[in-house]
Amino acid sequence: MKLSRRSFIKAAGAVAGYAVLGVNIAKEAAAEVMDFVARRQNSVYAADANKDIYKYRKSQDNPMIVKIYDPKKGFLHDGPCGHKSHELLHTYYYDRSSKLNALKEKGIKLNL
């Protein structure tokens, strides 16, 4: 059976919780966590529904973004996909496959 790192950590945490707290207390703790998640989810949805908090639901409607990309006097006047915005906002890829291959050659199995 293959486990990803995330699944292993979840399983190890659950097993440790059961071992330390016992089954009943661990079930109560899991129920409290799920209750917290539900309350947090409801509060996020309620805040998202409140349009007074979020004036601009889309970034292209934000006046600061419009001002930055203004073709006449904006800082990024050449547009969202222009040279200057690409230069300032682009992230770069670094090939790290040689390090990964070195680990594989040593016999280390990774679930990526």
TrEMBL record:
One cellular-component annotation, GO: periplasmic space
Molecular function terms from GO: electron transfer activity; ferredoxin hydrogenase activity; iron ion binding; iron-sulfur cluster binding
Record localization: Periplasm
Keywords: Iron, Iron-sulfur, Metal-binding
Transmembrane segment boundaries: none
Cited NCBIfam families: TAT_signal_seq (TIGR01409)
Name recorded for this polypeptide: Iron hydrogenase small subunit
UniProt organism field: Maridesulfovibrio salexigens (strain ATCC 14822 / DSM 2638 / NCIMB 8403 / VKM B-1763) (Desulfovibrio salexigens)
